[in-house]
Structures are given as structure tokens and as C-alpha cells.
Amino acid sequence: MKKKKKGTKKKIRIKFFNIFLFLTFILIIIGAVYEIANFKITNIYIKNNYYLTDLEVIETAKIKDYPSTFQNSCKKIEKRLEKNPLIKTAKVKKTCFTRVYIDIEENPLLFYDVNISKIVLKDGTTFSGNYDVPTLINQVPNKVYKKMITKFALINPDILDNISEIKYDPDNVDKERFLLTMSDGNYVYITLSKCSNINNYLKYIKEFNNKKGILYLNSGEYFKIMEN
Q1: How does pLDDT run across 125-180, given as a tens digit for each residue?
Q2: Which of 8, 24, 105, 202 is 20 to 30 A (C-alpha) from 164?
Q3: Which residues share a beta bridge with 94?
Q4: How far apart are CA 78 and CA 197, in angstroms?
Q5: Which residues make beta-bridge pairs with 95?
Q6: CA 171, CA 166: separation in Å to the nearest integer?
């Protein structure tokens, strides 16, 4: 009868132990990778949004529920944001992997055109939406309309907020004259060549002690007080 060689059982135990250690190491690595891959976004910071709320930006970026940070790269988030017509460009960066910083450049809203039932943006594109913007109430010749978009893009957003209605109102002298109805009850005549003058609207009104009337910025820059 042959005798078993000494150390055979010991070698088998060592072999199984090494296999066990190897498998344990692999499982640890897999677990670590899984945990890292599922690191969630913890903080979101947004700046330079005027028309869009923080929530609208977050929803557009598809990170409302603070998902995995590694499955939502900066480039992916930027592409999602730039699909929104109100966002011209978006820059996204992260710190500590889980803190997301979003810096957007908006495509400003100019006015709502009743003729097409759409909002016109600074770059001339249009979209359907529910925003509080001035309303263009009548038709404008195509050539004047294109120039109007370019010139209205020069008006400060806070001044646009004070305009309620826009009426194309040419006369025999000026084919580019418009009448603006302001939300405070005043009226303003402007011409496209001097459209940026409306940016001083609040200053003009203060000079007339907030009285109601018609401000002529198309020529002469004078204020005519309306009679009661």
C-alpha cells in the first residue's frame, strides 16, 4: 500500500485559500467600482439664468433627482441644456465629482407675436411657451420686422418687462415708428434707429414726477402729459 506524500493536503489548502483570496479581492474591486459608479450628485449651482428658473434648468439638464454623477458627464448635461431654445450656450463643471456648476447664456425673449402665436427670441427663432413678455398686436412689414428683432435685442430685459404691448404705428415721416404701451400706464413712441433710447425710460419718467402721458423718443425726446 502506497503512502500519501507529505504536504499534499497542505498544498491543496493553500491553493484553495489563494483562490478564495483572489475571488474576495475581485468582489471587493467590483463592489468598489459599483459604488463609485453610483456616486450621486449632491449639489447643483446655477448662474446667469434670467428667464428660466433654477428648477427649469435642472429639469432640462435631467438631474432633478440627483442621479449618478458618472453617468451624467459635463458634456452630456451641456448637450441637454443647449437643446432648450432659451439656452444659447451652457458650461458645466464639477468639483469633488458630485458638485455640479451650471453657467448658462440665455437666448433672451423679445416679444409675443399674435400673428404667429409664438414668442420671438433674440436670435430670431420662435417657440411656443407661456412667458410674460410684450405682445406685438399687429402685422409689421417683413423688412421692418427683421430690423425690429435686431433693435429690440438691444433693449435691457428689465425695460422689456415694463412693456405691455407693441404696435407698429408708422406715419408719413417715419415708416419704422412703433407705439409702446407700458405696464405703468404710459405710452412711448420709438423709432428703430433710436430704439436703445428706451433703456433710459425709468430716468425719463422720474424727471416728470411719475405723471402719466406719452413719451416721444422717436424725435425730440419730450413728454406730453395726458389730461384727466
Answers
A1: 998 988 899 999 999 999 999 999 999 999 998 999 999 999 999 999 899 999 99
A2: 105
A3: 100
A4: 36
A5: 99
A6: 16
pTM (two decimals): 0.74
CA–CA dist 141, 143 (Å, integer): 6
On whether the CB atoms of residues 212 and 186 are closer than 8 A, the answer is: yes
